[in-house]
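the two lines:
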Amino acid sequence: MKTFSSITILLAVLLVILNAGIGCLGDGTMDETNELKPVEVRDYQGEKLSSINEFRENSIKGPQQVGVESYRLKVSGLVEDPRAYTYDEVISNYQSYEKVVTLDCVEGWSVTILWKGLLIKDLLAEAKPLSNARVVIFHAYDGYTTSLPIEYIMYNDIIIAYKMNGVTIPPERGFPFELVAESKWGYKWIKWITEIELSDDVNYRGYWEQRGYSNSGDLDKGFFER
Amino acid sequence: MKNILKKNPARQIVHWLLLAVLALYLLTGFGITEYRVVEHLTFGLLTKPLAFKVHDNLIIPFIVLLGLHIYQQTKKKSRP
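prediction for all of em together
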């Protein structure tokens, strides 16, 4: 009986060791990585970040669902070589950049987010802007538009983002691309960008600008046209 | 309305003005945060930029009227 008990215990110990060994070594199938739901970054280099969910929804027609298959980002207007890129072409063919920028909304709220995207000047360089281009007009999927001077885009490393806090921009936040218009009021941060048009019309006014908001959109000034 | 105004016209004017300003203050507040709904309900009259301008300019009248209202009420209560 004693021998039987000893053998049972010995077998049990062996079984535990073997099981642990298999777990450590793996059997081939364990190497497969299953992608989990992305988790947003909330702290970047010691800086606390806001959550994606802290934005208030205030777009002109509500959240837009842009189909990635049919999506094209057009670069048009005063360029030598107009272009139309797929979503994948934009995110894989250009150097990506990350920066933490705060969006300040005219409504009084703000969010600090880690943005990842590409420089607009890299996109424009490929399309070769004409010398008389003065203004960059952004068009969105919902018909919203806004504009910024070409110098602002070129000399401030302005990006269009496809990730925020390490997560792909969700549809309600502007998928596929949102303009990170740093040092500008929130209405310049156009979401769901479909077209970047170069123009010589310095008097062009976007959606809110036509309704009285400042065309410069500078954060250090009021947001109403004086 | 005429009788009320006869009793104490200044107080009544302050009361009604305060109520009107308060209602407008609330409406324009919603005109900013829920502008799509408010624009629709006001047949496009109260736009978001207009709501901003009115809302911003109402703060001083609101404080003045509220101050007057409180003053009138305390004066009324302190009377023997």
